[in-house]
Design goal:
Shape: globular
CATH architecture: 3-Layer(aba) Sandwich
Number of strands: 5
Strand content: 15-25%
CATH superfamily: HUPs
Mean pLDDT: 84
Length: 161
């Protein structure tokens, strides 16, 4: 099959919609024989902002960072397992930093052809829109972006296929 992409990246953030996006990306990679990577970015910028705003003290920062690192590992392992169930090798990638910047850099450095993301959360204010890491990521990556919606249908299709 001749497709315009050969290297797919799915973005995980721990949400159900990002897991749905992973399922869709696995199905897409299998049907197109594309390489698939899954990225989880530990948002150290957000942690820094919480400390700066005095919501966390430095001791809590370390504990929270450890928890986020463990979450990243758990979600990446889960997606690798989902891929294996369908005969698709998923390359796990854990990064740390500012989400949009890390994903954009990864896409550029690895010549990713397609970024797959879960449904984008509702923006309630102009400030939310300006602050949204996902929105900034969607606007700045140098490749096409596929936003996956209709979670129930994708889950059903993944389990049946």
């Amino acid at each position: 099959m001749n497709v315009p992409f050969h290297d797919i990246l799915v973005y995980l953030d721990g949400s159900e919609s990002s897991l749905t996006a992973a399922m869709y990306a696995i199905t897409l990679a299998k049907s197109t024989e594309a390489k698939l990577s899954a990225v989880y970015v530990v948002n150290t910028r957000a942690i820094g902002e919480l400390v700066k705003a005095r919501i966390f003290v430095d001791a809590e920062r370390s504990e929270y960072l450890t928890d986020l690192e463990a979450d990243a590992e758990r979600y990446l392992r889960h997606v690798v397992h989902l891929g294996a169930q369908k005969g698709v090798v998923v390359q796990p990638v854990k990064l740390s930093g500012t989400v949009y910047s890390e994903v954009r850099t990864y896409v550029k450095d690895n010549l990713v052809d397609l970024l797959v993301v879960g449904g984008v959360t509702e923006i309630r204010s102009r400030r939310d829109e300006l602050m949204s890491e996902t929105d900034r990521m969607l606007r700045t990556v140098p490749c096409p972006v596929l936003i996956v919606r209709d979670d129930d249908a994708i889950w059903d299709n993944f389990e049946q296929g």
